[in-house]
Design brief:
By secondary structure, the protein is of the alpha/beta class. Helix content is about 40%, strand content about 10%. Strand 8, helix 13 and strand 9 form a beta-alpha-beta unit. The longest helix has about 30 residues.
Length: about 375
């Protein structure tokens, strides 16, 4: 771009060949970086997991995906902590507190929407760190699996948008295979009330407010630029771009809302996926929300395998905890999911003893049975 501008204004003083060489070097550098990233990804996935039980379970999962079974992944905050986004309930940097439960409600938002934005939502969910976060190797692994296997589906509790962010120039999880069940930062809906918390006849119709959302670039001019500045306090709550009367509020599931509060949450979609699933895989979740509890109940009722990828074992008070604790790939999902993606994208499966062997199938210590597990 700089080279083109120099030529246009006649100020170029360097040799054209030298400039072309610089451009080529820059291009090669970018290509080399992309190639290096792919090599690192392959190396990470090609190495067997250190835990024999984890390796056994990851082969079992890979076999199901390769057979095009319907495998539903449910992801929580643990998949994004490596991107610099703190978890809510676990870990030394968890942001969970009574403040969050008190402010994360529609009631609190309606009471003083400007204060709600400036003191709660923007510092907690719209910080510069969160906005600049990039997908982790675990996000990339799930995207790779989903793009190759249409029956692999992802339901996320996270609002960081990392599952649909671009990875190596491609969208992450294909849209038909992804449900952001708790919403996403950076998109808005009509609140149905104005800055004073009052409903008005000029607001969007209820059906429209429940079915429509707006990107940041669709906000009104006076709201859009201020919103993009994370360091600035809002002087007024943004307005709905459609009715221009009611406030525009985040498309995020608040504590006093239900899953069908907005179309974006796609409650019907994930509900149907749980009825259709051949296996469910929890990744980095603490099982504290209704979505995960319902998935566990459904897996028990339908007697389908359930797996947990987590640094901690499931709490004893959750449904099916005894079974789940024996089907936990305990460790960092940033290593476990790339291993799963490697096995799923290098079919036929190599034997654990030799990646050069033509033999296929699970490792000797893995069960090859496709029957549902005992309760």
């Amino acid at each position: 771009r700089d080279r083109e501008e120099d030529v246009v204004d006649g100020s170029s003083t360097t040799d054209d060949d030298d400039d072309d060489d610089d451009d080529d070097d820059s291009s090669r550098s970018e290509d080399e970086e992309a190639a290096a990233a792919l090599v690192l990804e392959e190396e990470l996935g090609s190495t067997p997991l250190t835990s024999e039980r984890n390796e056994e379970l990851v082969w079992e999962l890979a076999e199901m995906i390769l057979r095009e079974k319907c495998v539903v992944f449910i992801t929580g905050a643990g998949i994004s902590t490596s991107a610099g986004i703190p978890a809510f309930r676990t870990g030394g940097d968890a942001v969970w507190s009574e403040f969050v439960t008190a402010m994360g409600t529609r009631k609190a938002m309606r009471k003083d929407v400007l204060k709600w934005y400036n003191e709660f939502w923007r510092p907690t969910f719209e910080s510069a760190t969160i906005r600049s976060a990039a997908p982790t190797p675990a996000h990339e692994a799930l995207a790779k699996i989903a793009r190759r296997y249409p029956r692999a589906r992802v339901v996320t509790q996270n609002v960081d948008g990392l599952h649909c962010a671009a990875i190596h120039g491609e969208r992450g999880i294909p849209d038909p295979q992804l449900v952001e069940a708790h919403g996403r930062c950076g998109i808005f809906r009509c609140a149905g009330f104005d800055a004073a918390g009052k409903h008005g006849c000029e607001r969007c119709a209820e059906d429209k407010a429940r079915d429509t959302w707006y990107e940041v670039d669709e906000l009104l001019d006076e709201d859009r630029e201020v919103w993009k500045q994370t360091s600035s306090l809002l002087k007024a709550a943004p307005k709905c771009p459609s009715c221009k009367i009611a406030c525009a509020v985040p498309v995020a599931l608040l504590f006093d809302e239900i899953y069908d509060a907005h179309f974006f949450f796609e409650a019907d979609a994930w509900d149907a996926w749980l009825d259709d699933m051949d296996a469910v895989v929890f990744v980095g979740t603490s099982f504290a929300v209704e979505l995960t509890r319902e998935a566990l109940r459904r897996s028990r009722h339908r007697n389908v395998p359930a797996f947990d990828v987590n640094v901690n074992l499931a709490p004893l008070n959750v449904v099916r905890s005894d079974y789940l604790r024996t089907h936990t790939l305990q460790g960092d999902c940033q290593g476990i999911l790339p291993r799963l993606a490697f096995l799923c994208t290098h079919a036929p499966l190599p034997t654990p003893s030799s990646h050069d062997s033509a033999a296929v199938g699970p490792p000797p210590y893995a069960s090859s049975s496709s029957s549902a597990p005992p309760q």
